[in-house]
Amino acid sequence: MIVSYSKKYVEAGCDEAGRGCLAGPVFAAAVILPKGFRHKKLRDSKLVSEKDRLMLRDYIQKKAIAYSVQSVDEKEIDRINILNASFLAMHKAIGDLGVRPELLLIDGNRFTPYFGIPHHCIVKGDNKFYSIAAASILAKTYRDDHMRKLNEIYPHYGWHQNKGYGTLAHRIALDKEGPTEFHRRSFHVKATLPNVSGPK
């Protein structure tokens, strides 16, 4: 059951989206929710329909005490690696909140400490605590919107559907068209096409 974490501290939930993608930035969100916040449909963004994610985004943005969504682009991901880029995006979001949290709840098992604010890393925290789930929804929906815009520039890769993840269609397009400036050069992939030539 998804719950609030603390009644004592001003907590910010943090999560990222796009860490495993072949193209596009990594996005992260930080969200401070009011005490007693509830919504029966709020959970890990991967378990919520697109329609409900957009409804929840509007609801979270109206009800949150503070929220921020930030990103780190492909070139920076290649320069510092995706793990550090995810932490950097979270740090940027935390720093942009406008309200300084007293506790950070981080989805996952690792995090780079943020300037004197204590944190807890929680595996699958986006399906356990409201503030992390809210951050998951914001990061996911903002990134999806961004990838749909990039798809208008490069429609061959199907980013409006796969959002930059390494689906077979995306990898086939990579083999045929080559990488764009939005692909992560440090993510080495091949299409691994099925063998359709038959026995020899």
List keywords for this structure.
single chain; 200 residues; alpha/beta; Nucleotidyltransferase, domain 5; 5-stranded mixed β-sheet; 15% strand; globular; disordered C terminus
What does this structure look like?
This protein is of the alpha/beta class and 200 residues long. It has helices spanning 50-63, 74-80, 82-95, 130-153, 159-162, 168-177, and strands at residues 11-17, 26-32, 66-72, 103-107, 119-122. A five-stranded mixed sheet has the order 3-2-1-4-5. α1 (50-63) crosses α4 (130-153) and α2 (74-80) packs across α3 (82-95). The model is unreliable at 191-200 (pLDDT under 50).
Topology:
Layout: E1 11-17, E2 26-32, H1 50-63, E3 66-72, H2 74-80, H3 82-95, E4 103-107, E5 119-122, H4 130-153, H5 159-162, H6 168-177
Parallel strand pairs: 1-4, 4-5
Antiparallel strand pairs: 1-2, 2-3
CATH homologous superfamily annotation: Ribonuclease H-like superfamily/Ribonuclease H
Number of helices: 6
| Secondary-structure element order, N to C | EEHEHHEEHHH
Mean pLDDT: 92
Strand segment count: 5
What's the alpha carbon Rg, rounded to whole Å? Answer: 18 Å
Give the N-terminus to C-terminus distance in angstroms. Answer: 55 Å
Helix content: 25-40%
| Shape type | globular
Give a short account of the largest sheet.
5 strands, mixed
